[in-house]
């Protein structure tokens, strides 16, 4: 092995201090004579930085390193000898020594990798030490090439400055996987760094990729030492924090734009008025459908009998899930103890132009079988359904007995209303209020009575939203797509409605939660529809829609709507043009330009404050600040080197890397505690893996969730899934944006270039109904989510082009690994339970709307009707090197206690399956020259 090669091994200068196969230090004492300053030593130091994943500035101090580098004047030849632990450079002149050192630095260059990566760039002085290392990158890549030229005024070149230049060269190359040499006299280099004389000590940006340090003979070494020693603000350093501080300080609280109120008579008053309008009652029995709690309905029955003496019998039934309440309240209490089953014949939904599914009346019974098991002697399996195209009533219920005998228990015809939907010529047919008059058993008159919820929703749909649209008619390009029209709409609704926890799984009866979901999702559809009409592209980012529902039994229905203004301006993109130093070399301030203005900010550190439940055995950094200015932490788990500086892009070269994002949708609450629990034992994996965790990627949404659960702690709260202004911030990743939460994953991808990306999500833990959108989850979704399909399921994503077959193979290997972790656990049992429930109420009748893609012990979806397709998905954006990209979905919107614990455990098992498969894979860094790489993407083997 030639000297040029042996130097760059652990038999030479390199160290693997913890014996994990990763070069994590350079162990050399450079015994440089005081006045010897060969420029080729900069190349040598750059090569040392390239070869390691970590370094400290101890090269010019004798601390017992494994190699000592000495320099001896010679009259015979310029050459290097490496014997024992000493590397001696013999030289005839400093110029020849410089050439020798450059040759040693370039040793092995003939094995340069064929992959070409993006070159780092400096567009702002804050890019010098960026989140990714040295320089910034437009796109993520596992290949970072350093192309740098250093030029120093000869009058300033002192031994002190020269040593600092060596440190600078080593640190710049540390964050690179490829190196272009030489670092001096290279006019073709992408980045130029010059040191020249100046009256003030300052770092200046001369233009893109051109910067200089100006100062005196005394101040320049001190200033460069400060620059070399500083850390990016994300790592509790000070560098670049001035820009982040400016962005955070630029936030302003949204102003109230306008507000409106609504109020109406109660349903009870509407019913009484409808009856009184008939004059002389034509019947002796009243059947009323009312959207009120059971106690209120029972009291109203008494009021009706008192108010109308000619009425012999009055029954007040629920106008919300009428069939469910009728069976539960009137049939089950009188069920014959000898019956062996309950059969419910259901009329198939056939309203033309309606959004309802054919099985909507079966959906509206959910979970009557479990309620039957809870409240009678029958099991849930003993309750069966049949669906009929032609049936006189909505429901017909029979009791089943031994020997095949059947006994009719009753029929119910549910009153419905015709409600316009957002989309033209589309309608919903929700169950509604009504008064029916009977003479004995014969119906003689029916009068519809719109529920409080219907009347407010129609006002919101037909008056408020069109008025808002008119007010928003003048908008700027891009609004509604990558930034909103308004900051938020707050909707405070007060009504007298039923709210009951059923104590069956996580189920509840909640008409106002259903109204909440309709207001939220149907408003989104309103703006999506407007966008399609306007430009053929939906407005998917109108602004935050925040419904607050207040249940006050017996009160008149009322609502207040407040719209908060959006200040539409360009994202602040500060550029640091100057950094000022004291005479001592310490930072003073930074001059920042942006939008034609300049500001000077003091240089200070960003402190990392993590929540108390973040048990961090890894490295904690703050990647960004949210739109509301909240810090967004990233937790990095790898074996620490003990050195001053680590290079994640180089760590990924030696070890496989996985990124796990949690808390993206803030109402999906189990993923964050799950990943923190998993990482309590991170040392199980870090010998083989780097693990990067984004534990709460949406802190603004989480703040809204905390506000919403104060009043309704167990609702789904979909309004809190997106960010502060209702934006799915995944859609604006990799774009200039004021939403810092959108920048976090792109920053992590650039810093770590992971092999696998995992996105932990959640689904509703109880029934999701929207009566004004077809009694189902929103029409915008291609499949139904009206009840949980599993305790946890997976979604796999593969590219449509490059490496498609490899990605498909990798996905199947991941599915098997995750399945093996879930096998024989309580999670597997719960998955089976929910699959049966999902089948009984949906998949059995409409398999396309209620799909199941089975894997052992869990569902795993690969079809594009379920998987996201937007271009910010990691495997779609980077199919050349990302090996797998998966999503988990646990039934955690919003749960507590044992239910939350099971969701946490499900996420832990899912992620263990990912980590353990990746842990088994073998990878080898390649290239012993000026480029380091490994084969990407990995092909998984079980």
What does this structure look like?
- This is M14 family metallopeptidase.
- Residues 625-720 form the Peptidase M14 domain.
- InterPro entries: Peptidase_M14 (IPR000834).
- The protein is α/β, with parallel strands linked by helices.
- The protein has four domains: 3-237, no CATH class; 256-262 and 455-565; 280-447, no CATH class; 606-920, Aminopeptidase (3-Layer(aba) Sandwich), CATH 3.40.630.
- It has 21 helices and 41 strands.
- The chain has a nine-stranded mixed β-sheet with strand order 32-33-36-35-37-41-38-40-39, sandwiched between helices. An eight-stranded mixed β-sheet has the order 9-8-10-12-11-29-30-31, covered by helices on one side.
- Helix 2 (40-51) packs parallel to helix 4.
- The longest helix is centred in the middle third of the chain and has 25 residues, at 511-535.
- The two termini are 37 Å apart.
- The model is unreliable at 110-114 (pLDDT under 50).
Characteristic terms for this protein:
elongated, alpha/beta, 21 helices, 4 domains, single chain, 41 strands, 942 residues, eight-stranded mixed beta sheet
